[in-house]
Amino acid sequence: MNTLLAAAESKPDPAFERAWDRHRERVFRLVVRLAGSREVADDLTQEVAVQAAQAFPKFRGQAQAFTLFYKIAVRCVLRWRQQRPLGNDTLLETVPAPSCDPTTALTVQAALHALPDDQRAVLVLAVYEQLSYKEIAAVLEIPLGTVMSRLARARQQLRKELSDVL
């Protein structure tokens, strides 16, 4: 809590504020998709903002700012998922595709959230956020080959889980 108070009291870097304002909605959508709850995403996105503001002075600009924000967001969600009690699944609130009926959308979201964290993160970044494999590797700090193998396993698992629905 002291970190939050200190961050709130300090004056943020104007460059950070511009970058955060530009990418805040993308970060929030990513967190909703990974966490499965808008309520949880609100809290986690605030945590991402605080951590990003602290990390931004060290940001060298070799990558895009959203890469830094996504990296922090994924870590925050993974930490949250590890700390929550087992069996306390949140209601899946991600927005379904307009062409999908609600039952199918919920089934797809449940299958997505049943994936292991590492596979779900890669799939969400590739499909929903439309990042390149190289960008995903940078965000998750994993080799390019690992991105491709996790994505292939995630797609295979989803096909298996959703074969009756789709």
TrEMBL record:
Domain (RNA polymerase sigma factor 70 region 4 type) ranges: 108-158
SUPFAM superfamilies, alphabetized: Sigma2 domain of RNA polymerase sigma factors, Sigma3 and sigma4 domains of RNA polymerase sigma factors
Gene Ontology MF annotations: DNA binding; sigma factor activity
Any Pfam family the entry gives: Sigma70_r4_2
Biological process, per Gene Ontology: DNA-templated transcription initiation
Ranges for domain RNA polymerase sigma-70 region: 21-82
InterPro entries reported in the protein's UniProt record: RNA_pol_sigma-70-like, RNA_pol_sigma-70_dom, RNA_pol_sigma70_r2, RNA_pol_sigma70_r4_t2, RNA_pol_sigma_r2, RNA_pol_sigma_r3/r4-like, WH-like_DNA-bd_sf
Keyword Membrane: no
Keywords of the record: Sigma factor, Transcription, Transcription regulation
Family label: Belongs to the sigma-70 factor family. ECF subfamily.
Protein name (Swiss-Prot/TrEMBL): RNA polymerase sigma-70 factor (ECF subfamily)
